[in-house]
Amino acid sequence: MKILVLNAGSSSLKSSLYELGSDTLPQNPPEPIWSANIDWTVADSSGILTVKTQETKQKIELKSEDCDRAIASMLNTLVAGDSQVLNQLSEIDLVGHRVVHGGAEYHSATKITSEVKNAIARLIPLAPAHNPAHLRGIEAIEQLLGEIPQIAVFDTSFHSQLPLEAVVYPIPYEWYEKGIRRYGFHGISHQYCSRRTAEILNIDLESSRLIVCHLGNGCSLTAIKNGVSIDTTMGFTPLEGLMMGSRSGSIDPGILIYLMREEGFDADNLAEMLNKASGLKGVSGVSGDMREIKNAIAFGNQRAQLALDIYIHRLKKAIGAMLTTLGGLDVLVFTAGVGENNPVIREGACKALEFMGLKLDYEQNNSNVTEKNIAQADSTVEVIVIHTNEDWAIASECWDYLATSN
Q1: What is the pLDDT of residues 281-290, one digit of tens each?
Q2: What is the CA radius of gyration of the chain?
Q3: What structural domains does the chain harbor?
């Protein structure tokens, strides 16, 4: 069976095609037979489409930001040119979509219907940078591929079993009844990394305690006990929790009241500041990209150093909170762009846990080893770096859907 994965984001479009057998899924994530990425962050309102197969790689400049045309151009490379891997698009059996916000009603991969699309649209105010892009991607596939089944895999679904004490905010209860609650995000990544960790370390996930640190441009931690998410740092929106690239994470809500009363901020001003002008970018004045922060520190930029110090401080605090929720820790997992590639961040987090017997192998840590325990042999806590693979996680969910529906 051929499964296409589409991740339509606010500044990029990513897609992969997997060709899988119908009997069992491979234990190790296979390489897709085709993958493509459109980056809109280039100048002149154009985009760069990068297409890879197992034999080729090419880049194509796109002059329009229109989502439908971009996806059409992307899918055309499946059936034409040097990257052709299909004779016709009708060979695709199913399309899986990453959807950031599914609210409280969707707990597993779900076939996309008009009702599901309406739910994704209804939740746009809670994920304004993501859900609109997901809808555009779904509708573009409908136009291009007709009645092909489409599956939504929700970032929120892994957190659907959070206990009420982690879900309900300490505000008047009627707001919880109206849907203001902790939902949690990055669930596809957190679930994938927990399962992959168990496979690599040969541990029983259903009797283990893990903290997964998803550290990219967006950042979140999840406490996973016996394979279930029991606490997570992101909440009603992806803005809560850790300091991020350009997002503030959790701050005193009184600051927002002050800015509204004394500085004339409105909701749009606050949203722009908290989501796009805060975090590493806001403190450093340099960038939200950890690589740029590192370069600035090398040239003696004190604000960049402060941004890094705050980032590590808040990460350690959040790990401590997850630790007490779990009542102990077996494995600390790092993933996503910063988690996978920044040994300084990993070292800073691990040093805070030396009191409980965690001993990091600094040589292994600095070599950026992935999918291997980088703690010392006598450490009480294992530490592992996992390359998150949301596309494969989504493809796996789609495979399960096809296997159980046939």
Answers
A1: 999 999 999 9
A2: 21
A3: 2-154 (3.30.420.40), 203-385 (3.30.420.40)
